[in-house]
Structures are given as C-alpha cells and as structure tokens.
Amino acid sequence: MQTLIPFTAERCQGFVAQREGETKIGQTLHCYEGKGSLSEHLEQAKANGARFAILGIGEDIGPRANLGRGGAIDGFEAAMAQFCNFQSNQFLDGSHCLVLGQIATDDLQLPEGSSAKTLREHVDKLDERVIDVVSQVMEAGVEPIVIGGGHNNAYGLLMATKKVTGRPVAAVNLDPHSDFRPREGRHSGNGFSYAAASGALGHYHVLGLHELKNSQQTLEQLSAFGGKWHTLQSIWVRREISLEQAVKEIVNDLSSSDLPVALELDLDAIINMPSSASTAAGIPLLDALYYVHQIARKTPTAYLHLAEAAPSCHVAGVEAGRRETGQSISELIYAYIQGRMMQHPLG
C-alpha cells in the first residue's frame, strides 16, 4: 500500500489565496507529486534548494490508546492552509521548503469504542511507517518538520534519527507531560520511555512539566533514566527561574551531550490550544516560539516535531480550531526555520 499521501502542486494551489504584487510561500515551495521513488524526489528537491521537509501524520490512535480523547487528525491540513499563505520574501524564501504530504493512516484509524489493546497494536504499525519515511528524509540530508498526530510519533522520529546518525539522540520536549509512562503497549504517553529502552534516547529534558500531571511512578522512571526537567510552576507560577535562563541551561546540556538533538513540542503546553489534552494553565504561544527558535538556533537540531494539535476540540467548533491551530503551527514552523537558517546561513 501507499505509505505517503503526496502534497501535490494542485493540492497546494488549492490553499493559496493569490494577490497581485505578492508572492506566497505556497507559490514557491516544492511539492511531492508521488511519482518515482521518494528518495530520488528528496535528492532532487535538495539540489533545487529545499532544506526542510514538512510531513504530516494525521492520527489520533496514539492519544486514544493512552485513554485520552481523539481529534489529533487535521493539524497538518490546518497548518498548510495558513503556512502556504505566508509571504515569500526576504525573511523566508519558500523554495527552501518541501511539503511531502502525510503518512497514510486511514487503515490504522479505529472507531470509537475500540479496545486499548487493539489501538496500541495499531500504534506499533504506525511506528514502522514513521521510521521508514523519516529515515529517507534524513538520509537525503533534508530536515524533517513533522506535524502530528499524537505524541506517540516521537518514538518513530527518535528511532529514525538513531538509524540514520548511528547515535542516540538528545531530546528536549516542551510539554506538561513527560511522556515517560510505563511500557505497557505503545501510546502517546510512552514514546520517550520506549525510545530510552531501545537505546535511541540518550538524553532527555522536559520543559514546562506540570507538577501534578505526572505520576510518581513516571517521575521516578524519568529520574532513574537521568532525565531532567524544569516545571511549569517553577518558571511561570513561582518565578524561581526565568524562561531565558531555563532555555540557556537546556542549550548547554544539549550541546555538551555531543548528540543530535530532537526538538519536541506538545501543543497542549500552550494555553487553551485545541489539542488532545488542552489546558487553561498553559504557556503563551510567544514563549513557545522563543523556545523553538532558541533550540533550533543554538543546538544541532535533527528535526522539529509539533504534536497533538486537535482542531475539532476547539470550544467554538472545528473551523475556529483549524484557524487557531493552523496559525500557531505555522508560526512555530517559521520560528524553527529562522533559527536553523541563522545557525547555518545559506551561501
């Protein structure tokens, strides 16, 4: 079966609102028509200036397998509707971006009421697809920007990075949850604990961890692994440390690990963001943008993963959810690209 549903030029142009005298990113980025091998297309796109490959994984079996709510399916489409309409100008040339499309998940999605056991078996199958596609992107020398889907996909991304680099990965995750739950079958809450057990995760830091949304067992497992964290309460409530200082400490740790870096962000860290586990006690989007930009600019980042956006979970309905998640994800993508370009300018 086809494991990648291509984002064709025709599909892209369907998102673009053209205006005379303006050039939108959707008019300049590279698309994937699905013809020929994926590896050949990636090599050609890179030769034509593409540095980043945007990939969607539209599924909610991971969050539901974690006994959470669904809805994390349409983040990629919502983001592309906004991102393609950004201006292509002196700050960002759209030709640096390739939009591949989405990993096929329709055959893995399960109806409401499906057992956790069956959902977790399907997450295992999804892991294989993520590893396969993302490995090809990395092997071509293009940086993946992955839009979820559940945070379960962090496991496949970490495994792909280890497969291509031959080294474990240092991960940082802006998330109220550590996603270091017990290995009880694959789901959105244990991608990092499974990666740690497999040897793919060499260092792990959680930023914005909520002090009352992680079980004692999970915290003890994370500590035993050597994981670190700065809590939401220590930065944004008690103001014991500034965000700037926390990020500086994280950058130093990641850099000193001498490992490729995984840049992870769960959208439910952001205040009232429509997501699989949205929160009223979240952080501002601007702080999330700062985090992404700083890590991308100051560490050897291998990829960006934006997980758990769920447009259908917006209190005002799915269309409002698509606008809010789409705009937020697009801003996060730009913060990442700008950080990477500042670290390694073209020329």
From TrEMBL:
InterPro entries: Ureohydrolase (IPR006035), Ureohydrolase_dom_sf (IPR023696)
Keyword Hydrolase among UniProt keywords: yes
Annotated SUPFAM superfamilies: Arginase/deacetylase
Domain of life the protein comes from: Bacteria
UniProtKB keywords: Histidine metabolism, Hydrolase, Manganese, Metal-binding
Family: Belongs to the arginase family.
Protein name as annotated: Formimidoylglutamase
Organism: Shewanella marisflavi
Source taxonomy: Bacteria, Pseudomonadati, Pseudomonadota, Gammaproteobacteria, Alteromonadales
